[in-house]
């Protein structure tokens, strides 16, 4: 393979899900729910196929999806978007890829929070950019504005944010976002923010899109998708919104990645956003109860667990358990307990992988209760 893919040959999610199947383990690794989203939304997709919505959609997205994304942003966040400020993508993954390919010159620096969702690092590398990380340090996993400021250089082009944050479950507060926004304004940075867990926040946490802060709408590209909000992770219907020039850059890159995205799924995604957003509130409440089950269970077994305020995930620091690193711990867990987790060193860059990232693992609680209970029972029966 080309040198740009060195270190990115596979993904930890594919590797660990394969291991779960091969060993019959309970899979608390890859973040996907084991129950589907609303059946009427699924029915709407089937109907769109039968109605003949099976040929190429417009590159920007079908009119109803563009309208639904605009209406959603207005209803939830008071954001007014013109049609040219929305582009549909093949999941948030393609939006991230197209944003990086569309905005980053070779040698440009991209700042990410660390740990980061793995596709960010791969895409920065494929674009010839340089990724620089600002650690969210356990046990609280909050950003330190001084560290963020210190990581900015004259080559910094993008600030790539993610809140609610995978894998830590951190939901950035308004104050934290204001501190980040002040730096973006001071250094004239473009912000790309991945908000795929926007609806999956728990009691006490509120999702604030950074684009709603003063001066930020003009410099922020916001990314989301249907996958997490509606438990339809395989659909890969996403979108990017923001200033027309940033959206145009995403669309230009997207033209050559996929050209257009799955036509019949777009009217169904529009239907979900228009008619079924209340469902996501129920989902968030269910996830919160599952978080409590898993976090409480891990702690009662003497394992570390952080306090995620959103997402599907909880982090453990396993440094005290005697394993050389998180990979050794995760491998032992498969062997001894039949439970798969994600070792997190791959979510850290060189600089922090052997330090802050070395002993972190991620557990997914977006699974049915009996599955979480089975995992905890297996752990309890293990030394
Ligand atoms: N960003 C983050 C932070 C994620 O956790 C995920 C889910 N895998 C994605 C992007 C990808 O979203 P999609 O499935 O819509 O491509
Ligand atoms: N976002 C999910 C996770 O973080 C799935 C990722 C994937 O399979 N690429 O686990």
TrEMBL record:
Outline the extent of the Aminotransferase class I/classII large domain: 26-354
Q: Which residues form a coiled coil?
A: none
Annotated GO MF terms: kynurenine-oxoglutarate transaminase activity; pyridoxal phosphate binding
UniProt cross-references to SUPFAM superfamilies, sorted A to Z: PLP-dependent transferases (SSF53383)
Question: Mind naming one GO cellular-component term on file for this protein?
Answer: cytoplasm
Key word Transcription present: no
Q: Does the keyword Metal-binding apply?
A: no
The cofactor named in the record is:
pyridoxal 5'-phosphate
Question: Which Gene3D superfamilies does the entry link to?
Answer: Aspartate Aminotransferase, domain 1, Type I PLP-dependent aspartate aminotransferase-like (Major domain)
User: CDD domains annotated for this entry?
Assistant: AAT_like
Q: Could you tell me the keywords of this UniProt record?
A: Aminotransferase, Pyridoxal phosphate, Transferase
Record-stated family = Belongs to the class-I pyridoxal-phosphate-dependent aminotransferase family.
List the protein's name. Aminotransferase
Per the UniProt record, the lineage of the source organism begins with:
Bacteria, Bacillati, Actinomycetota, Actinomycetes, Propionibacteriales
